[in-house]
Design the sequence.
């Protein structure tokens, strides 16, 4: 049976019906999911009571997975699979992280608009986040359509942005919140990498802005000028008409395309309520500088 897609926003995002992800989808269904991603950018699968192995298998069916996680204290991992990202506020024993735990401080950066793994030479393609424990209030995830944001720019601004190259690092994004303490090993892992400012999406044939809080400079531009431009672009790209806010239910699996969307987590009482989210992330085909510009 063909999958059914119910739009959740006038521009993008859809809920998918007719699929139980506890059984790994075959190639034909995966191709249908890819086509849905090309159209909607965000797909929501409700009532998916998955375990870690089933979530990993779903990701692997769609393409190669990222093998490393962009976190501090990387040795403190409570999950079975080393390349499954722990998007939670939980310590190794399942208790809440202390308010001053550096992992909690670092993870507050997820509240900034970003694209997953743009701080890696080859960034992320799809992210698949699964809700295992959902707080009673808050903790929405917001998504912004960078294709629509690009389309709405004036032609003169599009021409200005098209050739630009940016530099991305977790150090840049966390510095915006005052987090500056790293080990030497973390500084080496988080060294800045170059990315295109504008991307071409092969599945949809559309261009999109490639923004992220991880950007700390623009090649050939003075830093204050670059940061002012980036601030203006983020304000433009995240206006409410371009944004879908996902309100989590238990066992939702939400998948999004990092090549054409920004996202951010919203606040909740994270020293009071537990939130257990687990993310599987597909890597892209190549560094953005090696991909078609448009």
Sequence:
């Amino acid at each position: 049976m063909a999958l059914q897609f119910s739009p959740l926003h006038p521009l993008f995002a859809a809920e998918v019906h007719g699929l139980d992800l506890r059984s790994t989808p075959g190639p034909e269904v995966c191709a249908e999911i890819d086509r849905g991603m090309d159209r909607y950018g965000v797909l929501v699968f409700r009532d998916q009571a998955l375990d870690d192995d089933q979530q990993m298998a779903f990701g692997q069916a769609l393409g190669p997975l990222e093998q490393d996680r962009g976190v501090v204290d990387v040795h403190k991992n409570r999950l079975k699979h080393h390349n499954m990202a722990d998007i939670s506020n939980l310590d190794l024993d399942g208790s809440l992280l202390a308010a001053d735990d550096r992992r909690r401080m670092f993870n507050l950066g997820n509240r900034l608009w970003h694209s997953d793994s743009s701080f890696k030479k080859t960034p992320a393609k799809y992210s698949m986040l699964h809700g295992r424990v959902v707080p009673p209030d808050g903790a929405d995830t917001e998504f912004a359509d960078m294709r629509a944001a690009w389309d709405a720019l004036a032609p003169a601004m599009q021409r200005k942005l098209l050739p630009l190259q940016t530099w991305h690092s977790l150090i840049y994004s966390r510095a915006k919140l005052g987090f500056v303490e790293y080990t030497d090993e973390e500084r080496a892992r988080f060294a800045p990498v170059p990315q295109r400012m504008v991307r071409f999406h092969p599945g949809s044939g559309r261009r999109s802005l490639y923004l992220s809080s991880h950007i700390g400079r623009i090649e050939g531009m003075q830093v204050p000028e670059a940061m002012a431009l980036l601030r203006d672009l983020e304000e433009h790209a995240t206006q409410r008409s371009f944004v879908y806010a996902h309100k989590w239910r238990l066992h939702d699996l939400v998948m999004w395309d990092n090549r054409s969307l920004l996202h951010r987590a919203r606040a909740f009482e994270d020293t009071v309520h537990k939130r257990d989210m687990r993310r599987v992330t597909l890597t892209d085909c190549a560094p953005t500088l090696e991909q078609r510009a448009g």
The longest helix spans residues 223-237. The CA atoms of residues 109 and 174 lie 6 Å apart. The two ends are 35 Å apart (CA to CA).
